[in-house]
DNA sequence: ATGAAAGCGCTAACAT
DNA sequence: ATGTTAGCGCTTTCAT
């Protein structure tokens, strides 16, 4: 009785309920213009058959997939994981699913994932850029797929961005270290082409300049090129650095690891402030002083804006949402 | 010239290239039976038009979505995040996308996500169960959607499972603590209905029983019900516990947090072993002794098995893959 | 309030 | 080697 494909289709439902296809469709879409009795009957047949609408078919016709994509560089980074979780929760509430892809920080992979998403007719995209220079969101833009970029304002494109006050936060963190009397402060960053890295670096430089000091920077292109040996050159004479400011979670991990290898005590031998808080940062003695990003809020806000665009596209220009960070003083800065 | 919908369709490609729809389709699907010249011409038109195949339409017709779903309880858990990343990488290589949903450990949400995935015609599912009692994968099973369950063998269902040797690992960890001379060892777990928790608990009980000791257990239904006060009742007289064995990452976080509040030094005041390793576990003094799960491998293996089922379904019974854990001794156990 | 028919963009028999 | 013709399961004018 049921279509040979295995599961019941709307045609089956209609036939068994003794109504037309359109009526069955109306029930699915909660159309108001329906006699309650008819609707009830159809609904009953639906549950009876265990009917599940085929979203692919629905999307093909309606030209919407009810899916948004999220592309991130690295899920192992807790900042990213939490943002993804927040986005997915908002999406669920809106009746959307999230297609997730990780780029590994590779612009080429990112672009190919972008294409894949386009083919899947995603209704929107939240991007945590791998590499600002190589991000190619033009095709999406041309197809009028709403995009929200997290953590990076894409220059010259009319996309919504949501970021934190990177520069200000970095400047304040650096100032805090300067306040402790440290003069030789090292900034450690990765992927300097990323906006977040660049901006945090700018904040650091501003603070150093204001204090009449030279910036000391250790920037690596990718994680593997950072080793304890590299760091040790900055810690040895002459003029060893007195404090380190790590520009994101990955760098914090790398530096902590290296300091352990080099037997340098945090705060005791060298002060440390980390951009990015994380679970247990307070448990690493003497507690890591950090700049905390409102991670969940970033994710939620990005999703919120995206769905606003998806649902109705008011042509007000691209949005720039800037959230504030929180400076959390624990012991590693020397306090 | 191009269909009014905005982007070029295969019909447009065919028309402009002066071939039939089917020929264009053949080019898309890399059919071998094509004159190279024709294929080249069609391909040229495709790039010229910036043609992107519509995966929704493709899937509707071909009855495959080229998407797999992954449902997890908590992305903030690094174990989960890394497994998801591993799965996604394998999926990408296979030309599939991953639809990710988090259940928050709520069986009801999990089930509704399961339904959503069904409607999306997913070709396979990797499940990190929220709650073994409530998981309802029957509908997927009936629709012949391959499923791989991570971290939990679903009883009585013919699904593939991939787990670690929970009981053995827990037993050995407990024995290790016993070897240090601790008698009063507390096991801390969450969601005791979960297979992982139950099995680890079993391992712990076995070891305690072998030593002629009573098991001491603190099991919470959910994270928020665990507080420092609750833990403190186990640490106070009479007979304070001498060591703690946490049954997963979340519990480790909760216990570490509580111990800090209670001003108890790890190893010094109380020994600790954690089931689940994590970034910086070695940095929490004196270094956390842990049972490490091969997280990436779990994810990769789960995906590998899933795609085997998707590509060809040999009717050999359900697989049970059991991976080994690694016992990593650092200082917290008292060593 | 309900139905008939067309078609979204693609694949797949079945020709030729 | 290439084209013709049906649909996949749904939504959607346009009738009634």
Please give a structural write-up.
- Two copies of one chain form a homodimer.
- With 335 residues, chain A is an alpha/beta fold.
- In chain A, 42% of the residues lie in helices and 17% in strands.
- Chain A has three domains: 10-53, lambda repressor-like DNA-binding domains (434 Repressor (Amino-terminal Domain)), CATH 1.10.260.40; 63-164 and 295-324, Rossmann fold (3-Layer(aba) Sandwich); 166-294, Rossmann fold, CATH 3.40.50.
- The first copy, chain A, has a six-stranded parallel β-sheet, sandwiched between helices. Chain A has a six-stranded mixed β-sheet with strand order 7-6-8-9-10-12.
- In chain A, strand 8, helix 11 (249-261) and strand 9 (271-275) form a beta-alpha-beta unit.
- At the A-B interface, helix 4, helix 5, strand 2, helix 6 and helix 11 of A face helix 4, helix 5, strand 2, helix 6 and helix 11 of B.
- Chain B binds a DNA duplex (16 and 16 nucleotides) through residues 3, 5, 9-11, 19-23, 25-26, 28-29, 33-35, 38, 53-63.
């Amino acid at each position: 009785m049921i279509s040979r494909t295995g599961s019941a289709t709307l045609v089956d439902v209609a036939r068994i309920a003794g109504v037309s296809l359109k009526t069955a469709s109306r029930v699915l879409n909660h159309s108001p213009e329906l006699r309650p009795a008819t609707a009830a009957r159809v609904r009953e047949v639906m549950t009876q058959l265990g009917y599940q609408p085929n979203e692919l078919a629905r999307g093909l016709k309606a030209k919407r997939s009810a899916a948004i994509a999220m592309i991130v560089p690295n899920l192992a980074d807790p900042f990213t994981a939490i943002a993804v979780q927040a986005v997915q929760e908002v999406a669920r509430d809106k009746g959307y699913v999230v297609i997730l892809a990780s780029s590994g920080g590779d612009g080429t992979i990112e672009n190919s994932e972008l294409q894949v998403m386009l083919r899947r007719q995603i209704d929107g995209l939240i991007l945590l850029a791998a590499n600002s220079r190589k991000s190619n969101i033009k095709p999406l833009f041309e197809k009028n797929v709403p995009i929200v970029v997290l953590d990076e304002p894409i220059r010259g494109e009319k996309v919504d961005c949501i970021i934190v006050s990177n520069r200000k936060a970095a400047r304040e963190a650096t100032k805090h270290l300067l306040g402790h009397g440290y003069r030789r402060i090292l900034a450690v960053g990765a992927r300097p082409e990323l906006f977040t890295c660049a901006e945090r670096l700018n904040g650091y430089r501003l603070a150093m300049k204001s204090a009449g000091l030279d910036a000391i920077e250790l920037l690596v292109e990718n994680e593997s090129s950072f080793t304890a040996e590299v760091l040790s050159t900055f810690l040895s004479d002459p003029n060893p650095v007195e404090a380190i400011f790590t520009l994101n979670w990955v760098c914090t991990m790398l530096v902590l690891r290296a300091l352990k290898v080099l037997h340098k005590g945090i705060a005791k031998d060298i002060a440390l402030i980390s951009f990015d808080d994380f679970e247990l940062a307070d448990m690493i003695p003497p507690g890591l002083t950090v700049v905390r990003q409102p991670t969940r809020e970033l994710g939620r806000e990005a999703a919120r804006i995206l769905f606003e665009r998806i649902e109705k596209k008011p042509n007000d220009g691209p949005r720039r949402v800037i959230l504030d960070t929180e400076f959390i003083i624990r012991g590693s800065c020397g306090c």
